[in-house]
Amino acid sequence: MTTIKIFDTTLRDGEQSPGVNLNNLEKLEIAKQLERLGVDVMEAGFPASSQGDFDAVKKIADTISSSTVAALARANKHDIDRAWDAIKGAEKPRIHVFIATSPIHMQDKLKKTPEEVIDIAVNMVSYAKSKCDDIEFSAEDASRSELPFLADIIEKVITAGATVINLPDTVGYTTPKEYGAMFKYMKAHVKNIDQVDLSTHCHDDLGMALINSIAGVENGATQVEGTINGIGERAGNVALEEMAVTFEIRKDFYPFETNLILNEIKRTSDIISKLTGMVVPGNKSVVGRNAFAHESGIHQDGVLKNAQTYEIITPELVGVTSNSLVLGKHSGRHAFKDKIKQLGFSLDDDKTAVAFDQFKQLTDRKKEVTDDDLFVILMDVQTDIKARLQYQLKNFKVEYNSSTSPTATVSLITPGLNTIEGQGTGNGSVEALYNTIEELIEEEIQLTDFTLSSVGKGKDALAEVHVSMTVDSQPVSGRATAQDVLEASLNAFINAINRVFIIQVAEKE
Amino acid sequence: MTTIKIFDTTLRDGEQSPGVNLNNLEKLEIAKQLERLGVDVMEAGFPASSQGDFDAVKKIADTISSSTVAALARANKHDIDRAWDAIKGAEKPRIHVFIATSPIHMQDKLKKTPEEVIDIAVNMVSYAKSKCDDIEFSAEDASRSELPFLADIIEKVITAGATVINLPDTVGYTTPKEYGAMFKYMKAHVKNIDQVDLSTHCHDDLGMALINSIAGVENGATQVEGTINGIGERAGNVALEEMAVTFEIRKDFYPFETNLILNEIKRTSDIISKLTGMVVPGNKSVVGRNAFAHESGIHQDGVLKNAQTYEIITPELVGVTSNSLVLGKHSGRHAFKDKIKQLGFSLDDDKTAVAFDQFKQLTDRKKEVTDDDLFVILMDVQTDIKARLQYQLKNFKVEYNSSTSPTATVSLITPGLNTIEGQGTGNGSVEALYNTIEELIEEEIQLTDFTLSSVGKGKDALAEVHVSMTVDSQPVSGRATAQDVLEASLNAFINAINRVFIIQVAEKE
Q1: Which of B210, B296, B397 sits opposite A16 (nearest CB)?
Q2: pLDDT digits (tens, 9 = 90+) for A139-181
Q3: Among B161, B373, B402, B430, which one has the highest count of C-beta atoms within 10 angstroms of its own C-beta?
Q4: Minimal CA–CA distance to A459: which of B347, B36, B432, B367?
Q5: A427 and B484: CB-CB below 8 Å?
Q6: What are phi and psi of B133, to 5 degrees?
Q7: Which chain A residue has the Cα nearest residue B14?
């Protein structure tokens, strides 16, 4: 068995998914879970792209110890300096330098000759190497590059100090045979290739990210880049959980394994789905909620007779547990703390107190408090969804009557601790709420997306709302969970607005 | 170029997705769209499984003319009789007989010897052939069957009259090399194999449904079975739109094509997603809404300089149009009828009148009525979501105040045309509504899932609610669209209850 290193780029390529805007605490929480999942490398961000990204990468680098923390940089000194400044505190830092190598990208985007591109790549890898031992070089759009040129530039950047060579299928265009052949070619034609890890990076535009990655591995790649849930630019990256589970289930066929802790997969998938607002569809391989469900009578009959008739992956393998009932009205703080640990959270005393309060409030109103419910509470508290509020909701009222327009009344506490109140109407009750709050605050708001889903089953399930909007032309998203759809809708809206303030403050600092 | 036949099983395997319960009008609407998309064969259902399924298959068989309509049957006379009765009115009927051929399925599920399985298969194919010229035979769990046995049974069922042989990867366990090798083996060892179409049927449990299907095609398969959006049992089937687009985009590499009208893909995907309630994730290949979005600054810059730097599929290819503004307050019936045609709907006069009324109501309340909005109205009218109501909503009221419990008042008109009214509370406003209505009607209801999404952008977007529940232990789903989340929630609930009545009436008839 060859162990394939897992390079997770959920926080960089995944975070580039349209509509995804994670704050730094959310990124940190994802990073901690990725470490628990056992990723060998996590790409924490692109520090030169914004101050917010820099701060997030630094915070992650300073926190994570067992995984390598990588930062992306274009092939220029400024980007490399910013990347290094962000990650130099990490136990295992890596600078990830990239430049495009395909004719179309060099001509039309970079407007450079191939010789110029080689010079830049070699110089910038050397420059990065003067700061950091572990340097990954990516030949962007490798799958549309000319093989001899690619071999040439790779050999030279390895000589310049690169420790990992990544050959991305940037546009998701390749097929397994072509992608595998590229790796085979490099193994045969680059004389110092055995000094480095070769890496795949595949996009799913044609639905082949997984098999292309496997083809790379079968032809010499020892690192696979991807994301959890397959999020990322356009159709996304390869879903790492699919690769790891395929290698596990088909170890009779594929002589590869990864260091991922497979029963952390479901939890990781849930956290990333909730925090990014990127829904995992029911029919998603490995982590979709139907993946282990058997609907037709024929299948159910078969599974009862012998599960293996229709089930090749057990739910337990990837950490899916039946939604156990936990803790009730009479549970005390001690039992609550035990449960927090069991669910894998590590909260400080203040946050534990806040979470316990919220749990108690919920037990007053909901008969069955499930692990799912607790997970939402703990995640909200951990990522400080309420603690850093600028605008705070004091109270609100909605009157809906099918024969007239809905009316909303909202009281807010402003950042200056004044109470402001307004009333408004709309064609729907959420619109009435949003109209009212827009009148109350000064920012220019455009709502671009609104989704609401239930957490768990039954009519007393929690409502989880995710909104995307632009506030003064800046894209931002917000989320909130409550037992009432109107309350969750209103809080998600306020949460999004508050995030703009947090970003603005961070950029001034 | 070899033309590969597309066998769509959205209405059979896709409809087996947990939580999906389509009524007959919805199935018919999907069937009509599949015909427009140009599928060679559509599997309309499994007539022996229930009277409802039988009726749906019959209605589809009687309506569709250019695609073959197939009906599934286990290898027994009763199933085959039911299948034939349902499809005999079709222009191009096909009976699809299956029996399992893997050791585990034969021993543990069927409890038959291999010889018995061959006898049954041959006899039942002959029996089906006595009714229908076009007979497909599926060797269930073929990918875990022994190759010589599989070759033996195939040869015999071809002699018995099968015209299509399907070799499914029922549990989604295979890899492209193994699956391709199976087809190659059959081409080499079954002497009458060239008399039939060989078919793939792949599930996505390990994320390899697409590449496995392609491997089958590369080794002699001339038919591919799958679904739109890849819905289906567990992780679903191969997504047919991904296969068709891959063959189009990579025709330089793959010498295959399909008869699908590619620019009908998006519309087909939308219809199926809306009617099944199976959400298409943003990062889904080909049809996800991010598939053509470019988020990072680097990518945006590249696309502006030359779209092909990062874009290999144009939105237009698959029928994605920018969300054009259409029709306003002052648009008349004539313009509205033109628009209906343009959107691909064919409504009778009564339904046109209902749709026009709803459109007018919407223009009173919503500044910009988009194609998306109209699509929802037309689809609701076309699938009779309101016309067949048993319980009808008269009016309702909700009062929400953050300091007390929400209160709901609901008036319903019963199937006997009486008005009943009730009041109730809950921990959330939707719960209050649902509690109230549950008190008003007699059935035993368990809500199992609730999702709400916005149609289009902005705070005056329509709210689309999809609920799944059991009513007197019978699983059913409902959906509704309205400009208010509470109204949509209530109507979806009532819609689900009414569907139970429709099913009960259909079963009595």
Answers
A1: B296
A2: 999 999 999 999 999 999 999 999 999 999 999 999 999 999 9
A3: B430
A4: B432
A5: yes
A6: -70, -35
A7: A283
